Amino acid sequence: MEEELKKVNDLFLDSKSQLEQCSIDLDEKQQRLEETSRHLEKTKEKLVEEEIVCSELSSAHESLYSAVGQLLSAVGESTGDVSGLHAKLDRKTKVEQHNMQMQQSFSQKMDGAFSSLQRSVQHYGHTGIHKTVGQLNKNEKKD
């Protein structure tokens, strides 16, 4: 009987030891599970935050692309306007050059005409004076 009591006691001690070890293992696993759960919650929160940030970033990209499109359109219009302005300035410069040439040509023609007129007046003036003096002399002789 003592032997059986000893066997039962040994079995009890073994079972108790196994139970304590299982309790320790269970506590460790419970702590790891709680830690993993907290980590999972933090990861879920970060995921939600990243989804929000990604959504906002996507919205910002769309806005930027829209703004870039508008800017490119405005640049295209401005380039056309600048090209038209340059063309207009080129036409104006050509007109001014043509007007300057016409003015110089007219001035030269007028100078020539005035010179010719002056020569004619001078020639007529000399010829006319001689004729007038001659007529005066004739008229005086008649009187």
TrEMBL record:
It comes from the Eukaryota. This is Uncharacterized protein. Residues 19-53 form a coiled coil. It is found in: Cytoplasm, Cytoskeleton. One of its GO terms (cellular component) is mitotic spindle. Transmembrane segments: none annotated. Keywords: Coiled coil, Cytoplasm, Cytoskeleton, Motor protein. The keyword Cell membrane does not apply. It comes from Xiphophorus couchianus (Monterrey platyfish). The keyword DNA damage does not apply.
